[in-house]
């Protein structure tokens, strides 16, 4: 039987993808011919910005190399443009005079960049940003010229601008709308993005309309409608694209904005199909890559006469990363009369999240600064999920694994995980199972998933975890430690250990932080992790400490400090009280207050007085300012109390002496009560001890603060030695596995009590944990004393320069 | 015409200013936060966060910015502008190093 002839016009991502789908359904059905105007095999147009940005080169973005066409017996004519279609004779003609008959014809002519119809747009140095030729022109211009103007502050314009910035050009972006990427972002996110890009050196002229491109032969500048002028030697037009439909129109196909197709990508003329950016489906023309794959599938099934699967349109999502700025938008994200928004705006970390609901259905979302939830929200939007049963705000919070797990689990093997490179879940699963990929990076190398924009990384990781099944640990949810990196706490700690990193700058440099010197969130965290990994070798960085831990006192709102000397177990004596009283008098300390942790707090001490105050108190620092052991609160116990069954003060003092000065992920409070009346409030402490007849109960994960939580019974022990052994091991395990600034109450819920018990049940593990704890404790020196003895530190940190 | 009076004040040896940290300097009752950046550059700004008056000299310094120790506002040390999403600005002062000595130029 003779094969049917299939002709594809357009050798780009959509067309070739459709052919791939056709080959999947039936590799023998057609004799295939492809015409492409560009002199290249099919390449990934999305990655042109990476070529421009210098991250990769043209060869690396090829999707189907010459061999692929050969292997699949495809006749490819590059550099040849189809100029007419005769749908009666069923043949196409090209600009080189070739005439090719067809049985089935696919139009994938894509889009043309929209060139503003203004005077001068034909001058040298004016280019679009659409293909390899344009990219080359920009690369060349950057070697000779300095000033670039990008017209258009959308996705493409900003990608181009970032690339030109990398090439050392002075870049201004001109945009008609009052904020950037108005088709994907709302005003808040648009402004945040602008701010971030301005920091990177990009300049913006918003609400500007270009009137003319001026210059002799080559462009010299832009003049605007408002009469202003901008010098430029290179002008990139990125104002939009329009479907390339000229050929289809002339062939008599029904063309609206794009070539009108039905749910099977069929045009109104039999045997002619259209796919990709040139096609208009249910009134929509898509300019993004993800819909192309779904369209290609529908087309392939129809053209091969297989069981038809209709294409029913796509909900769009955009995930973009320009130099570390994560942006995500999906669906219908503008609120109005009937659509209401939920917004979370974390000013501290520069994170903005917005969710748009119509009634109880999620219809759209915008994320800025942290787009890790993008995939999950996108899936909810696609399913138009009903959220009436869910606490609204919790939708915007990273969930504890359940949502992500079910998302990946519920996806079919054909579902696309990586929209940029069209990688399905099935392909990734195969790479894990057959090629032994065990990390996101290995999967990336194997399948190209997450190679382009990186937005699908969390999803790839979930597929990995889900596929590995038994090894999948739901608790290990990746969360970047701050906006400076995409790495999670575990990854960072792992790298510190593996690479032997020894200071924060080195970590940020080696692990590719996007802020050279980090931020107020990651620097203290890294300082802690480095000290935790290598307690004896690491030199603490005071410049990476929050003020209180650097000054070893608590800063107050007026810039004075408070001083809390150590009072082990809340027990004091006449001598200490006398010293405190003398210091209060001498330094005119305005307020002395008894704290909740059974000690005294001296408020309103001037910064320059701190060292002398400490010297005269001659008591150790109470670490009331630190992510550290604070106090061990005690009841009076058997020494005086008629109910007490244990020596709570003695044990409390011993605990405080042992663990004082220990750096922990967050503050740690303890309490020891001598009987179940729990007068020291042992039930709401990070570790609380309650004396019982013949031993102790140890409660953990209690919290009396923001996150009120009753402690869980960890163990009952008989002796004080066992109590110390368990406490040391437990605290060390917390130190080694908690996120910085994660209280034990949150940590225990994340880890699970039974998991922690299973770790601590093993005597050998306990011994090792205690050994590492002892090593950490061995570095303790009273910081107040150290400062008092160091003239240099006193001068650098505590003296104010006063000139007259 | 406005008369501006610029005073040049010596604030001590450049070596007395710790790297990547701030130092409080008082000039004629005015409190100024002076920073020696990791690049060695000196920056001087008004020592008062526009938010709630936090002492900026005690903030964490990263690149060209300082994070206020009170509520983590981020302030650019070059131009004194508070970074978005917050807004506001603090005064900045020119600094010059001559030999080992650091001078601030104070406009009256």
Automatic annotation (TrEMBL), chain B:
One of its GO terms (molecular function) is nitrite reductase (NADH) activity. Keywords: 2Fe-2S, Iron, Iron-sulfur, Metal-binding, Nitrate assimilation, Oxidoreductase. It comes from the Bacteria. Residues 9-104 form the Rieske domain. Its EC number is 1.7.1.15. GO terms for biological process: nitrate assimilation. It is an enzyme of class 1 (oxidoreductase). Transmembrane segments: none annotated. This is Nitrite reductase (NADH) small subunit. The gene is nirD.
């Amino acid at each position: 039987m003779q094969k049917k002839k299939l002709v594809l016009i357009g050798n780009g991502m959509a067309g070739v993808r459709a052919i791939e789908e056709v080959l999947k359904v039936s590799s023998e059905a057609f004799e295939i011919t492809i015409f492409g105007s560009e002199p290249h095999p099919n390449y990934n147009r999305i990655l042109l910005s990476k070529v421009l940005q210098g991250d990769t080169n043209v060869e690396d973005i090829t999707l189907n190399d010459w061999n692929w066409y050969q292997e699949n017996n495809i006749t490819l004519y590059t550099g040849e443009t189809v100029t007419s279609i005769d749908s009666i004779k069923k043949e196409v003609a090209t600009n080189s005079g070739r005439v090719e008959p067809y049985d089935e014809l696919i139009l994938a002519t894509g889009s043309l960049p929209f060139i503003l119809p203004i005077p001068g747009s034909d001058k040298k140095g004016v280019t679009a940003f659409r293909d390899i030729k344009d990219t080359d022109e920009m690369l060349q211009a950057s070697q000779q010229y300095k000033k670039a103007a990008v017209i258009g502050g959308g996705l493409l314009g900003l990608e181009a601008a970032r690339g030109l910035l990398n090439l050392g050009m002075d870049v201004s972006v001109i945009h008609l709308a009052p904020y950037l990427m108005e088709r994907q972002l709302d005003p808040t996110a648009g402004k945040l993005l602008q701010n971030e890009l301005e920091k990177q050196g990009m300049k913006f002229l918003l609400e500007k309309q270009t009137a003319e491109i001026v210059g002799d032969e080559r462009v010299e500048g832009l003049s605007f409608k408002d009469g202003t002028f901008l010098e430029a030697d290179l002008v990139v037009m990125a104002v939009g694209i329009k479907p390339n439909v000229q050929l289809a129109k002339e062939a008599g196909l029904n063309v609206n904005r794009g070539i009108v197709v039905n749910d099977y990508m069929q045009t109104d003329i039999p045997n002619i199909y259209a796919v990709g950016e040139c096609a208009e489906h249910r009134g929509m023309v898509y300019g993004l890559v993800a819909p192309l794959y779904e369209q290609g599938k529908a087309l392939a099934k129809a053209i091969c006469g297989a069981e038809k699967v209709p294409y029913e349109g796509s909900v769009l999502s955009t995930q973009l990363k320009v130099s570390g700025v994560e942006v995500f938008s999906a669906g219908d994200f503008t609120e109005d009369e009937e659509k209401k928004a939920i917004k979370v705006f974390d000013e501290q970390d520069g994170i903005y999240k917005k969710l748009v609901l119509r009634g109880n259905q999620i219809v759209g979302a915008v994320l800025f600064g942290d787009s890790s939830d993008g995939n999950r929200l996108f899936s909810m939007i696609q399913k138009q999920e009903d959220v009436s049963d869910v606490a609204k705000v919790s939708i915007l919070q990273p969930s504890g694994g359940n949502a992500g797990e079910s998302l990946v689990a519920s996806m079919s093997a054909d579902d696309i995980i990586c929209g940029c490179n069209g990688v399905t879940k099935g392909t990734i699963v195969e790479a894990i199972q057959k090629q032994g990929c065990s990390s996101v990076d290995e999967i990336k190398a194997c399948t190209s998933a997450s190679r382009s924009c990186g937005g699908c990384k969390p999803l790839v990781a979930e597929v990995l975890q889900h596929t590995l099944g038994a090894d999948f640990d739901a608790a290990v949810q990746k969360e970047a430690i701050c906006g400076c990196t995409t790495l999670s706490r575990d990854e960072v700690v792992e790298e510190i250990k593996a690479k032997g990193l020894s200071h924060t700058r080195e970590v940020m440099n080696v692990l590719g932080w996007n802020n050279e010197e980090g931020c107020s969130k990651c620097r203290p965290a890294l300082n802690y992790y480095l000290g935790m990994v290598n307690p004896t070798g690491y030199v603490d960085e005071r410049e990476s400490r929050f003020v209180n831990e650097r000054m070893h006192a608590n800063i107050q709102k007026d810039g004075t400090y408070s001083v809390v000397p150590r009072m082990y177990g809340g027990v004091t004596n006449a001598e200490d009280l006398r010293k405190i009283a003398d210091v209060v008098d001498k330094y005119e300390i305005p307020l002395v207050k008894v704290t909740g942790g059974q000690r005294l707090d001296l408020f309103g001490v001037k910064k320059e007085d701190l060292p002398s105050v400490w010297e005269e108190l001659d008591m150790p620092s109470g670490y009331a300012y630190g992510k550290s052991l604070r106090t061990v609160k005690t009841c009076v116990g058997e020494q005086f109390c008629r109910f007490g069954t244990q020596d709570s003060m003695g044990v409390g003092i011993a605990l405080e002496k042992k663990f004082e000065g220990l750096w922990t992920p967050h503050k740690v409070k303890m309490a020891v009560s001598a009987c179940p009346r729990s007068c020291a409030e042992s039930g709401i402490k990070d570790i609380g001890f309650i004396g019982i007849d013949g031993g102790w109960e140890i409660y953990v994960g209690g919290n009396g603060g923001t996150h009120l939580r009753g402690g869980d019974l960890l163990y009952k022990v008989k002796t004080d030695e066992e109590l110390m052994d368990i406490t040391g091991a437990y605290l060390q395990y917390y130190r080694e596995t908690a996120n910085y600034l994660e209280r034990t109450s949150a940590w225990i819920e994340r880890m699970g009590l039974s998991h922690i018990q299973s770790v601590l049940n093993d005597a050998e593990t306990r011994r090792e944990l205690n050994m590492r704890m002892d090593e950490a404790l061995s570095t303790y020196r009273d910081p107040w004393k150290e400062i008092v003895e160091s003239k240099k530190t006193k001068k650098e940190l505590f003296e104010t320069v006063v000139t007259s | 015409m406005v008369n501006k009076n610029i005073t040049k004040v010596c604030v001590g040896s450049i070596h007395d200013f710790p790297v990547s940290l701030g130092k409080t300097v008082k000039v004629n009752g005015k409190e100024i936060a002076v920073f020696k950046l990791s690049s060695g550059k000196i920056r001087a700004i008004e020592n008062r966060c526009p938010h709630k008056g936090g002492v900026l000299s005690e903030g964490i310094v990263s690149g060209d910015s300082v994070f206020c120790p009170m509520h983590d506002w981020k302030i650019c040390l070059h131009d004194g502008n508070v970074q978005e999403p917050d807004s506001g600005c603090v005064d900045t002062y020119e600094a010059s190093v001559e030999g080992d000595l650091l001078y601030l130029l104070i406009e009256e």
